[in-house]
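Saturday, quiet lab. Running sequence design on the structure tokens for the scaffold JK sent over.
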């Protein structure tokens, strides 16, 4: 979309906070990280917040910083963590205190538990095209209201503009504010967040992302913001980094090895993994790019009965059967995925609307492990009903907001581990 598009409009007022976004701020769901940018002056780092129907106003203080990228200098990027929130409660909050004040609200999740319903939205590879705007609008208008977005990477695509034009990080932040200011987006890092550009002197990977988007990685024992875990309602969510080292004895490997034993499926029965580069992909685009991570980690996913893995990267949509390929080694020649009811369903949802367009070329014939695939822009909803059942629906941008393009009832791998493959005629 052109820079003068209304979705990129700077909010009115002197040094008004912009690009407001929130994410979970701890492991348990009782904290929120509030982030925003003031362009002209630093302004206040304070967040005022209060419960709905309460006159008691509370304060939290954050920090701000700026960064430079080539010829670009950022505004003042503020991050403030609000802690000790009550579960299942509506809070209002205000930023820009003492100057141009802007007010928003959010809902905290229910206390982690096996049978509390909770609905997640899923978006990947969003960008800032006209299709991106349709995707976000469709998500907002979906009758199955998502309460938190699981975002599987590739934010602004600023690196596709000349010299990684970081002004496009600002426009993207203003574009998504209508959602990110009101419900948490759980961030996954993609390849377009690398911003590694030695040809213009930028040799620190992920610089814009690390300054603009914080994650609660320390609360889960992670050493970097790119991989971490959270509990949210009935779900335990593990976020992995496809573009950070993941081989044996790397920090990410060591962290994940210690993470799975922490998951209590009695408290959080649904185990969800987010990553950017898919492990199973039958498109020609980015084919096999996730293979080395799959070889490293897939046995853990099967052993621990992960329910579903969401990825992006490929600009299309695909859902797998429950399959694994853990029997393969270099000499045995067993290299075809097989049905495995302890394995997750792998869903690629890199179809948010990026300017690079759709991935339209697929490998033929369609592999047996691929249950459904289509090159259309869209978003998805994963609606957990209780410890045994979750409803999943993928929505195309060209359909009505209530129309499902692909659906599946998920049966939990621990509490209801029967075959949940849809019937052939469904």
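Result came back. Writing it out in full:
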């Amino acid at each position: 979309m052109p820079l003068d598009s209304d979705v990129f409009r700077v909010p009115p007022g002197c040094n008004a906070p912009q690009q407001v976004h929130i994410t979970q701020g701890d492991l348990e769901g009782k904290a929120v990280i509030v982030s925003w940018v003031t362009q002209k002056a630093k302004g206040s780092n304070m967040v005022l917040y209060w419960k709905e129907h309460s006159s008691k106003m509370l304060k939290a203080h954050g920090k701000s910083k700026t960064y430079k990228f080539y010829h670009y200098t950022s505004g003042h990027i503020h991050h403030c963590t609000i802690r000790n929130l009550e579960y299942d409660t509506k809070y209002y909050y205000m930023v820009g205190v003492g100057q141009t004040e802007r007010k928003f609200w959010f809902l905290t999740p229910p206390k982690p538990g096996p049978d509390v319903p909770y609905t997640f939205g899923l978006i990947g590879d969003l960008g800032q095209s006209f299709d991106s705007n349709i995707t976000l609008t469709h998500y907002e208008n979906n009758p199955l209201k998502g309460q938190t977005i699981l975002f599987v990477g590739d934010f602004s695509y600023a690196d596709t503009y000349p010299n990684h034009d970081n002004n496009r990080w600002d426009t993207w932040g203003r574009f998504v504010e209508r959602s990110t200011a009101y419900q948490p987006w759980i961030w996954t890092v993609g390849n377009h967040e690398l911003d590694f550009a030695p040809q213009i002197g930028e040799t620190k990977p992920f610089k814009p992302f690390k300054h603009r988007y914080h994650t609660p990685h320390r609360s889960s024992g992670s050493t970097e913001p790119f991989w971490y875990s959270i509990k949210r309602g009935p779900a335990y969510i593990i976020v992995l980094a496809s573009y950070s080292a993941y081989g044996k004895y790397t920090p990410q490997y060591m962290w994940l090895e210690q993470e799975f034993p922490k998951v209590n499926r009695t408290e959080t029965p649904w185990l969800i993994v987010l990553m950017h580069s898919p492990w199973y992909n039958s498109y020609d685009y980015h084919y096999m790019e996730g293979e080395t991570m799959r070889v490293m980690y897939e046995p853990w996913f099967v052993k621990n009965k992960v329910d579903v893995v969401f990825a992006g990267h490929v600009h299309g949509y695909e859902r797998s059967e429950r399959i694994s390929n853990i029997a393969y080694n270099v000499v045995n020649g067993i290299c075809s995925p097989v049905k495995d009811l302890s394995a997750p369903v792998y869903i690629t949802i890199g179809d948010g609307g990026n300017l690079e367009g759709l991935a339209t070329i697929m490998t033929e014939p369609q592999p047996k492990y691929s249950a459904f695939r289509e090159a259309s822009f869209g978003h998805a909803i994963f609606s957990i009903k209780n410890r045994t059942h979750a409803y999943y629906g993928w929505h195309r941008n060209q359909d009505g907001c209530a129309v499902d393009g692909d659906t599946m009832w998920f049966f939990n791998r621990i509490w209801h581990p029967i075959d949940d493959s849809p019937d052939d005629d469904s």
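Notes for JK: The mean pLDDT is 96. Residues 167-180 form the longest helix (14 residues). Ask whether to fix the surface positions before the next round.
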